[in-house]
């Protein structure tokens, strides 16, 4: 197939042709029939119309997405152009393990109709590349030889599970006529209520009476009461009004003729005329609304399930209701003719015999008819209910009917929606369009500088990487266990280095260079209780759920008993300081299990404090940890500059002075590489959306300074700068106590001791305990500190709600 270029290489302009064919006022959308595509360098425009098969931009330039265009519209703003499509899939888009279900080799120009309800069918109209010819061929036919390479063929349907034969009704080729949009359809014809037989009979009797009055002789039977005369006059008015509408609807004329006294019809004639009328009406409606009328042979067998789909359901029901009603009325007439010896007039032979309930409902219909055409729909509903004869039922049957359905459900009914399985796994639907690629250098740099982006290498940590690699590799090769304690301030690459070591070891295990091992990672920050570490380790090892105590017993048994073919387990424990408990049994077990003979467990622990074992661990826990320790020093400005340069990977987006300014600022404060990456990303955003760009188009000094001000001038920093002197001293005391303990939490008594010491160093009068509690409460009300609720004493637990770097930056600026 010819090569289709995407929008990144060729500039295209899109324009909706003509006026809107219809509008949706609720959704504020305007629908169009065609779209023109103008390509720079080409004199002619490509026009894509609704119903054609189109090509849509994708990742593969040689094989763009194929779809059939169903709708073209603009959104509520009128600026964005949208399209609704039916998707096709190529062989390359089907999973490789599913292609074998086809049972043959796919044709290079073959595509498949895609049937998946979870796939989004609304796309941006500006991703359309042009039209393409798609031809449907029967499943048993051979692919034509010598066909154009731009022609695609479709035979089968793919529903993400199996290939099935494509029904011709699902896919209509662009040459076949399509139904117009809903707004173009002809308005529905409002059906008039069926004329009541008693009213028509009286109207005809009144006409004959007037003819006899011309001789000047009035018969005694023609004298009626005033009430009867008023009813007769109302019926005449109704009759005249209905006859005035007969000329616009031939169906009404024939229905009125059924009750006329000059025409006597048999049962077969009545049924034939009614069914012919319904057939003509359906054909007219089908022609106006875009349906395909069925032949007369199909109409005669319309009750068959195979042909019922060609006729609208409402018309089929109405035809069946009319035919059943006529049969019942004719049966009643035949029974009355046999019972009555006197007989009836010729004009009454073809009329219906209404019941008392019908007469009451017909009078109601006459009153409603006089109110105007606005209530015609209500009259139609009442007339349909009233004309059907009703057999009186007993009270017991009525009560039973409320519980028992009137009709037994058919065995051929459509299958119901399958029930959701008990353990349903949620899944993210497949993306209909590929992720947007960066359009310029700044966008590319912003993606590469994201913290979650995995770099190709970890610069400035080569020695630490090699030490951790050698330690874990030796334990896996020997089949023994051990512990290593890794410390360092936040943002120095501790976790990233360990993950890189594990990835390298897993690649070596896949190549059979070292034995296979299991890797498990837990984080103390993600646990509500330190004892949940047992539950997570057991679940990741054996996919078994248990309580904390039961999980600890199972792990104790697993790491103590020998087992054949046991693989080494590498356990990474991040944020170790948050697993501290009063008895320290969690830490003790984690460090004691690797010393067992048959454990084959390697534990790597990470914390932010270098001397954490000496500060918070008791002797028996610190002895189990051992002396294998590693410290990650904060990054210098040269190392930070090298990290950013390696992330950009020859993408020229920063000026040299701007890059050096960011590195020096962050290195002087904390040496956090994550903070440095965040500042650089924010600088690229400011440069991209700034109206005052530099002459080179790169991120300059002004953009970096603005990003630094935003990063270190948040609302928390502004609040810290606005606090009183005693409150600032209290914040400094909190940080000093955290560093002394190696934890992120302390009691008010411990912080108050540090606060008094700072007051003496600054030459200030130390505050009392009540004044210190008041200072602590004010900081908690500002949400700078997190205080223990429902407690106000010396054992009140205190935590920082902001990072320590922000507090130090705000206090250092003062």
Structure description:
By secondary structure, this protein is an alpha/beta fold. Among the domains are: 154 residues, SH3 type barrels; 170 residues, Rossmann fold (3-Layer(aba) Sandwich); 76 residues; 96 residues, Arc Repressor Mutant, subunit A, CATH 1.10.10. The protein contains 26 helices and 21 strands. The strands form four sheets. A six-stranded mixed beta barrel has the order 6-7-8-9-12-11. A hairpin with a 6-residue loop joins strand 4 and strand 5. The chain is elongated, with a radius of gyration of 43 Å. Belongs to the ORC1 family.
- Number of discrete helical segments: 26
Mean pLDDT: 76
What spatial form do the alpha-carbon principal axes imply? elongated
- The first-level CATH class name of the domain at 462-631: Alpha Beta
The CATH architecture category of the domain at 462-631 equals: 3-Layer(aba) Sandwich
Radius of gyration, in angstroms, nearest whole number: 43 Å
What is the total tally of β strands?
21
Looking at CATH, which topology of the domain at 462-631 would you report? Rossmann fold
- Taking pLDDT < 50 over at least 5 consecutive residues as the criterion, the unreliable ranges are 1-8, 174-192, 206-232, 250-263, 291-315, 341-363, 365-390, 392-402
Tell me the fraction of residues in β-strands, as a range: 5-15%
The CATH homologous superfamily of the domain at 462-631: P-loop containing nucleotide triphosphate hydrolases
Query: Major sheet: size, sense and barrel closure?
Result: 6 strands, mixed, barrel
- Termini separation comes to 69 Å
SS class? alpha/beta
What is the helical fraction, as a range of percent?
40-55%
Oligomeric category:
single chain
Strand order of the largest sheet: 6-7-8-9-12-11
């Amino acid at each position: 197939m010819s090569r289709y270029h995407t929008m990144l290489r060729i500039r295209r302009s899109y324009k909706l042709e003509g006026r809107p064919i219809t509008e949706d006022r609720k959704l504020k959308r305007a629908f169009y029939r065609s779209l023109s595509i103008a390509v720079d360098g080409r004199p002619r425009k490509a026009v894509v119309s609704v119903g054609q098969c189109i090509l849509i931009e994708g990742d593969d330039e040689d094989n763009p997405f194929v779809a059939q265009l169903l709708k073209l519209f603009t959104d509520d703003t009128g600026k964005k152009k949208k399209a609704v499509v039916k998707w096709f899939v190529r062989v390359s888009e089907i999973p490789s393990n599913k292609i074998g279900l086809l049972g043959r080799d796919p044709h290079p120009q073959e595509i498949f109709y895609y049937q998946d309800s979870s796939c989004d069918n609304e796309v941006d109209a500006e991703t359309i590349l042009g039209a393409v010819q798609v031809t449907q061929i029967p499943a048993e036919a051979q692919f034509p030889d010598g066909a154009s390479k731009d022609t695609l063929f479709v035979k089968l349907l793919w529903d993400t599970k199996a290939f099935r034969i494509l029904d011709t009704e699902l896919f209509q080729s662009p040459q076949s006529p399509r139904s117009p949009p809903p707004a173009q359809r002809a308005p529905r014809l409002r059906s008039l209520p069926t004329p009541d037989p008693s009213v028509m009979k009286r109207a005809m009797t009144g006409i004959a009476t007037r003819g006899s009055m011309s001789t000047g002789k009035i018969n005694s039977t023609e004298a009626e009461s005033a009430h009867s005369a008023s009813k007769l006059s109302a019926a005449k008015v109704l009759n005249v009004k209905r006859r005035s509408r007969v000329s616009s609807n031939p169906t009404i004329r024939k229905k009125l003729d059924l009750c006329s006294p000059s025409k006597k019809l048999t049962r077969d004639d009545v049924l034939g005329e009614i069914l012919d009328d319904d057939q003509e009406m359906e054909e007219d409606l089908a022609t106006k609304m875009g349906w395909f009328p069925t032949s007369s042979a199909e109409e005669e067998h319309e009750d068959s399930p195979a042909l019922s789909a060609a006729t609208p359901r409402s018309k089929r029901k109405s035809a069946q209701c009319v035919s059943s009603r006529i049969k019942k009325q004719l049966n009643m007439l035949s029974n009355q003719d046999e019972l009555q010896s006197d007989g009836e007039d010729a004009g009454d032979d073809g009329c219906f015999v209404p019941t008392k309930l019908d007469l009451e409902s017909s009078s109601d219909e006459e009153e409603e008819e006089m109110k105007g055409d606005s209530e015609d729909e209500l009259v139609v509903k009442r007339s349909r209910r009233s004309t059907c004869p009703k057999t009186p039922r007993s009270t017991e049957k009525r009560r039973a009917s409320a519980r028992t359905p009137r009709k037994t459900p058919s065995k051929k009914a459509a299958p119901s929606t399958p029930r959701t399985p008990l353990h349903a796994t949620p899944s993210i639907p497949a993306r209909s369009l590929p992720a947007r690629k960066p359009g310029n250098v700044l966008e590319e740099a912003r993606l590469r500088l994201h913290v979650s982006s995995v770099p190709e290498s970890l610069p400035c940590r080569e020695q630490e990487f090699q030490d951790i690699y050698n330690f874990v590799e030796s334990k896996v090769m020997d089949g023994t266990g051990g512990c290593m304690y890794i410390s360092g301030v936040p943002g120095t690459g501790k976790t990233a280095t360990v993950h890189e070591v594990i990835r390298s070891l897993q690649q070596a295990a896949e190549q059979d260079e070292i034995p296979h091992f299991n890797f498990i990672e837990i984080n103390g920050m993600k646990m509500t209780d330190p004892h949940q570490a047992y539950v997570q380790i057991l679940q990741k090892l054996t996919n078994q759920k248990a309580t904390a105590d039961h999980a600890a017993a199972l792990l104790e048994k697993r790491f103590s008993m020998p087992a054949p073919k046991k693989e080494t387990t590498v356990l990474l424990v991040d944020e170790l300081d948050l697993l501290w408990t009063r008895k320290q049994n969690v830490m003790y077990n984690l460090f004691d299990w690797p010393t067992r003979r048959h454990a084959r467990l390697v534990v790597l622990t990470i914390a932010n404090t270098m001397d954490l074992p000496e500060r918070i661990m008791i002797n028996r826990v610190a002895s189990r940890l051992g002396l294998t320790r590693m410290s990650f020093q904060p990054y210098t400005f040269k190392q930070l500059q090298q990290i950013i340069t390696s992330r950009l990977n020859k993408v020229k987006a920063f000026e040299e002075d701007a890059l050096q300014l960011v590195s020096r600022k962050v290195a002087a404060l904390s040496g956090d590489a994550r903070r440095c990456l965040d500042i650089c990303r924010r600088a690229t955003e400011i440069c991209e959306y700034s109206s005052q760009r530099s002459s080179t188009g790169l991120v300059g000094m002004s953009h970096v300074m603005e990003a630094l001000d935003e990063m270190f001038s948040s609302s928390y920093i502004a609040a810290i700068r606005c606090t009183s002197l005693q409150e600032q001293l209290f914040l400094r005391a909190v940080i000093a106590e955290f560093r002394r303990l190696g934890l992120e939490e302390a009691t008010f008594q411990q912080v108050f001791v540090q606060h008094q010491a700072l007051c003496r160093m600054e030459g200030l009068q130390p505050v009392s305990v009540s004044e210190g509690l008041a200072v602590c409460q004010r900081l908690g009300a500002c949400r700078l500190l997190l205080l223990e609720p429902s407690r106000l004493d010396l054992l009140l637990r205190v935590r920082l709600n902001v990072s320590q770097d922000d507090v130090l930056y705000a206090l250092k600026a003062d």
